[in-house]
Structure formats: C-alpha cells, structure tokens
Predict the 3D structure of the following.
Amino acid sequence: MISEFRERIRKSITDANLQIALDNNAQRRRDGRLSAFASLPDHQERRARAHAIKADVVAHLDEYLERFLAKIQANGIIVHRAQDADEAVKIVLDILEATHGPSSHKPILMAKAKSMVSEEINLNHALAEHNIRAIETDLGEYIVQLRGERPSHIITPAVHLRRGDVGKLFEEKLGLPYTEEIPVLTNTARKVLREVFLTANVGLSGVNFGVAETGTLCVVTNEGNGRMCTTVPPVHIALMGMERLVPTMDDLALFLSLLPRSATGQKLSVYTSLIHSPLPGQVRHLIVLDNGRSALRASPLSESLFCIRCGACLNACPVFRELGGHAYGSIYPGPIGSVISSALVDPKFAYLSQASSLCGACKEACPVDIDLPGMLLKIRAGENAEHVSPGVGLPGIVKLGHKLFGQAAAIPWLFKFAQRTMGLFPLPQWIRIPAFTGWGYSKDFPRPAAKPFRVRWNGLKREDAETAKNAIANEERRTAEKIAPVKINLVDQFTTEFNALGGKVIPVAASDASTCLEEFLRERGVDRVLVDGAGAEYVSGFAMIHEPDPSVPVGVTGVLCGIAETGSLVLVSGAGQTLTASLLPETHIAILKQSQLLPTVVSALTRMEVADSKAGVVITGPSRTADIEMTLTIGVHGPGELIVFLIDDSEAV
C-alpha cells in the first residue's frame, strides 16, 4: 500500500493543474478563516470551551446518547443503531423497501445532501447494486459523482478541479455547450437537480450536530440542497456518527460560531437547519453509526472524536496542499484523515501517519484545539484503535535509524555529545537521502547545525524580569481603563450585516407595510405568492399559494426573530407549514419587526419556540456556493435574492 501511496504522491506533485487548484484553495481558505475570526476576539477562549465540551461528551457518550435518542423518539423520529457499515447500509435498504414496497418495479430516486458518513459506509455503491438512483445534490459532490470520483476535500469536494474541467464534464454528461462561465455551470446544475428534489422518493442527509437536551438535528449548508433533501421528499433519512453530539442549545451556538468560520470563512453558513420532528405528511429516520467509534473512544486517539469536520486542518496542512485529497487513498484525507482513516475506514491506512511534517499548523487551525500532531506521533509509535507496529509504512532502514536515534536520545549526555560532534562534520550539500527510503526524490539530506539548539538557546539573551513585570502592569492598567461597551443599535447592526451578505433591507412604517409590499410585488410583475406563517397577513391583492410550488417566483414569510450579530433570520414551522416558501422561489421576502431583533445567535437558539417547533432554519444571506474554483456564485438551490421588509413597530412597543 505504501508503494501505491508514493505513486499517487508522484502523480499529484507533477500535476500542474492540480497544484494551481490546491494553492488557490489553501490561500483563499486561510485568508477567509483569518478574516472571519477577526470579528471574534475571544475565539481562543471559545476553542478551549469547545474542546472541554467535546471531551465531556466523548467521556460520557453513552449517557448523552441515551438522553438524545429518547428525546428524538419522543419527537416522532424513528431511530436506528448501526454497529458497522454493513448494518447501516442494510437499514437504509430496509427503509427504502418498507417505503416503496418490495414488489414495486418503479426505480427509487434518492436526493442526497453531503454526508461524509455515507462515503464512509460506501452507501452509493451499495444503492447502485440494488438499482437505486442516489444523486448527490451538493454542487461539488454532484461534479465528482459525474466524474466517478470520491470527494477530494471534506468541505470542497471538487477542490482538485478547475472551471475548464467542469465545463468539459458538463458538455459531456449534460449536453451543455462548452463554457467556463461559472454562473452558467452552476445554473445548469440547479436546473437538473431541481427536478431531482421535486421527484425524489427519499432525501438523505448527514448531521453536523445533535443536541442532547432537545433532540435537535442540526444540518449546516450553503446551497440549500440540505434543506431540500430534508423538507421536500416524503421520507428523510439522517446519517449521524455517534460522536456528533453537544449537550445544549447554548453549546450548539458556540460550535456554530466556530464551524463556519473555520470551514468557509463565514460568521454563519447560509442555512442552519434545526430538525425536531417530521413535517406534515413526512416520515423521518435517524441512523446512528458506530463503525469503530467505540474502539476509537477507548484508544489513545480518542481526541480525534472531537472533530467537527470543518476541513480547516486540510487547508492549513502543507502536505495536503501539495497532494490533494485523492492521493491519500482514503475518504478522509489530510491530518484528521491520517488519524481516523485506519480506525473508521481500514487499518491499512495507518501508514498515512507518515504523511505529515508535524509542523503543527493543523492544531493551530483546529477550532476544537485537537492535538493532531500528537496523535500522528502515537500512530507512528504503534498506538492505535487497531494495533499496528511502530513505524508503519517506513522502510526497514528508516525504522533502524529511528531506533538508534531513540536509544541515543534517551541518554542525555550521549545525545548532547552527538549533537556537538555532528556539527563539527557538516555534510556536503550534494548528498541526498536515498530514494528507496521514500523521501529521496528531491530533498537534500538535512545538514547538522554548527551549534546545537541547546547551545543556541542558552546563548540567547533572557528577557529582563523587570520588563516582563512592567508589561503585565501595563496590560492590567489598560484593562482597568477600558470604557464600558457602547450599547449597540440592533437595527443598524442587523442592517449592516444583512446587506454585507448580499441581502437587502427595506425599512417601512408599521402602517405602510402591506402597501409597500404590494407596490414592490406589482413592480416585479408578480401575480402569485408562496406564503408561509405570518407573512400571509401582509399580502393582499395576489393569489396566495400555501402548498410547495416551484413555479411561484416569490415567497413571503414571517420570521420568529432576527439576529443582529450575523444578519440572520430565524424561521420555525408552525401548524401545516413546511418552510418551503423561504426555499423554493427565486426571491424570498421576509417580514421582520424591529422588536423581533435579538443581539446574538445564542439568544435566538435558546428561544422556547425553536425547541418546540417541528423544524426551524437560520437563514444567513441568499443561497451561495464556491465549489468551482473557489468563485462565489449567488443562487444555487435556494433563493438568489433575499429581501427583508423591516417594520418599525417601536411606537407599538
């Protein structure tokens, strides 16, 4: 296997097209992450809290799972437990047979949202063997599915491709005249996949977080395909790794402040779906998967279960930046993949622990502060959920060198003597590592330093103690002199954030709201409106459609509340409501009162109405994607235009 890995490495580093794509991804993701966290000054404290929460969940996983599943079942969702991949696949097939009928000859169509767990259990291949069409609906996933490939990245499945590659693919598979215009390519996928959403027998999604106290399934997406798969088909199946739990909605808000910033550089993803119960006329299933997680939990690598699948470690890793995801050979690439692949996919992948420089960039980027370098070293030392010998994947001569080095390093005086001695005999620059070690394709042999680190460290000038004392005193003084924070105007903050997302705020007086909305719709030439919730009371003079209808151009909805810090809207489903008026039309108009504005995400998610609803969604801007060459495109599966009529009801309050 290690020889095949080396062959994939050679292929990747000589692929100029791949190198450009990977460089662009790494730089833009890095810049986006840094910019997003700049608005979160306490993000290091949040990382520490998130780490502690996940440590508690993993340590008491059985208790949290019992509480979570009891709540889920009480909410009307059918729960299944799967010990391994085969059992999970069988459960999916059994659900499809029970839903569709064993004697039916009509093909089953499944609309799939992004799910790494489905990749882990090789679900698509199993479904194809049973003549079930499973269509990936995330744009990047759809592209790689058309190419017959696995995702190359946890967050950006088609990161290895450029626009020309996608243009050729759509020309060949979809009959689209060749183009490199990304909006045209995206709109073509939207048209094809819209039919899939509307005709699918079953929708399947992953689960980003499960909330133990409320039985909430949280699914985070940007394009709207996740919402489509969980709301439109009559049957929804959610696949969840058993470790993906957080205790409370407060904790969920914390993780939502970290996940999108780390993954895509956003304060919040466009759609944060909060699922509690089946919608009217719908059946929901939850499959909770073990597949090695229990063994991993009891191993030295248990910290890897803290991962929230943001992909930040892949973007930061210099090895991934050169190789891309496919070179790893596992569905989980990058630093986190090098840790968990051998436990959750196949023990043979233990050799991936060698695919790291141990520079620590992955740990620095991780929003949950997972010690990935430390775990990679443990695997190299033979510690794993599955027992492997030390130095797995290394040639014998390299293992011997490591053994001799370890023996020398264990004796302080000998190690010190060796450091000093090696520095006296620098090797010529032309000496290279032998190629058969796996390292010697182009790297020079490391030249010993003239002075060992210990000597250089002892020679450094120590920081003056008085200077340090003064620095501490100055910091304490600045803290004491801080002026109390100015009260934030929620209307101004919400408007600024919402407009920055590409939305549009239209301020109106309470007495003029219906008239302004009517004038707006007539200017657009609208004659039919899809309505949901309180939005209906502001619509007059138009045909109001209450059932999902993709041909209606505008949807008008009420909202539960607005979130000022992120420019988000919170919608919940009431009696007979499916939330599709905010999803199916090209334009979504939301009616929001100033009195409904709340300052933070946590203040919105902890509202009782959220936990009591069948489903809810936090909408943060219009539908978008950057799956093709990291180029932002507005309007994918959800509305491309998002407008808020912000009603001044201050006098009434």
User: Anything to note?
Assistant: The longest strand covers residues 641-648. The mean pLDDT is 89. The domain at 42-137+197-291 is CATH 3.40.50.10420 (Rossmann fold).
